[in-house]
Amino acid sequence: MASTGTEEFVRVQRPAFAEHALGNVVVTGGASGLGAAVAQAIAERGGNPIVLDLHESSEEYTSRRLDLADARAAEAAVTELGRELGGLDAVVTAAGTDSCGPLDGVDAEDWERVIAVNLIGTAAIVRAALPFLRESEGRVVTVASTLGFTAAGDASAYCASKFGVVGFSRALAIELAGEVGVTMLVPGGMHTAFFDSRDEKYKPPADAVLNDPSDVANAVVFALSQPAPCELREIVVCPSRESSWPP
User: Fold this and answer.
1) Considering the entire predicted model, what is its pTM?
2) Which of 28, 42, 130, 152 has a Cα at 20 to 30 A from 200?
3) CATH code of residue 210
């Protein structure tokens, strides 16, 4: 039959899925920077942020002081908290560190600490949380970087750790499909204290356009809040003039 140009479109009624409740959310690095912004955003939306950080949190959240370079201590802390709180609903691995300089100019222990915190610490936290997350059908948000896709000189430790987080996150999403949601966040430069301890030549220039960490935190909460059938697998949140993206 010839088309009349007036075909009728039928709207398919989809089932309504409830927004995923935030619940108990472990936030590494939650005492400052992006982690603190994520913890605040979770609390403002009715969730219970659980801060794991080397430093004390200034907020009245459930928290533990913890060096993520000690993977076994990190695992023990997450297991203990999960039992104390009656379960965990999500993990956000926002803790990170770096040590800038040429490979033979950075102390070996400092170089290896970057890998231990950024990559091994991330895996340790997620590993310990998995029994609880499987039970709650929870979520994981790993924090990579634009330097997990493109390399920069004098940043071999940081690039190696974040390239590792990218591979870890993508493999984990495949492994946990249908059990636990996995989102990889890829943030660009932000206004945080992350750059403060760097040598001046490794700090962003005065005219650098950087994001507010609270805006990036909103993207994290958006990913955590998606209804169960829906997952945001990868999110890039960077300044519009981010020089390291696209890779």
Assistant:
1) 0.88
2) 28
3) 3.40.50.720
